[in-house]
Amino acid sequence: MPTFLTPNRHGYSVRFSPFQPERIACATSQYFGLAGGGTLFLLEVVPDGGLVEVACTQWSDGLFDLAWSETDANIIVSASGDGGLQLWNISCPQVSNHTMTLNNFVFHLLTSTSDFQRTQEGSVFGGLESDKTRTVSIVSILGLQYKTGKNLNWDPNRPNSLATFLGHTQLVYSAMWSPHVSACFASVSGDGTLKVWNTHMPQHPTMSVRAHDAEVLSCDWCKYDQNILATGGSDGLIHGWDLRNLTSPVFELKGCEYAVRRVRFSPHNVSVLASVSYDFTTRIWDFKTAPDPLETVKHHSEFVYGLDFNNHVAGQIADCGWDSLVHVFSPRSLVSLSSPLVPPVK
Asked: Which residues does UniProt call coiled coil (predicted)?
């Protein structure tokens, strides 16, 4: 199993490149994100099965999330505890004060937006997704104002956010663009709700449901059905929602002993999803077969925060956690599953 140690840095987010199947980015922070700086690692799975560092760059505050551009293989967005979003070009030949060169790769800070309100703890971070339908700029960014419960939509070529979406009454933990409807995204919050938004109508959400009787920490869209979402809560439950009828969850998955920190749908199997939790586990689920996990993987010794599927390699996932480890692996339950007959929406 390819594994990489991020020395003295604790993992918060890991994402596969949408262009290069062997490339991974990982956002980390010092001192468990409570103080100190952050490091963005660019990693690569090599032919002999190892996971090696290609490049890394430092930021003055902790890095809590990241996203790859879906229109440029060299662009990464990171979100930091100082309230900023950083847009990085990992191959730009220019050199600036925010550049680090390693192994012939260069991280160049293209832009940094710091208009988020800094929390008292300095822990503003966002669930970020590229919106490939926007052609006005390299990437359109969906960010979170962590303390005040706002969603903000950014264009890197403009000094202010494109729109602010008000509706949550507590911390917004995650926001995800729909892979099916270009102007639609979902968000979840410490207020226990899942909200669905139309970017053309930022004044209020188009749909809202109390998703958990606890804080909701993560959400994701099914890649095969535009009406299905999953949410993960601090109650240790995963709920599935059908936007055509929000009166009750269409599925409930049980097994995590503590909070579900992140949930992701498989890009290769209609009803399969994965989750990571504060109980140190990564779990694989099939909501059409059983409410219990297909497989439980426990190869971390601390909270597991980051999770992603590889769009190019069926059955391969990556996770990262507070134990400073990044793992890339193919759970047995995913390897044994047959591939669907139709490709997912990218």
From this structure: none
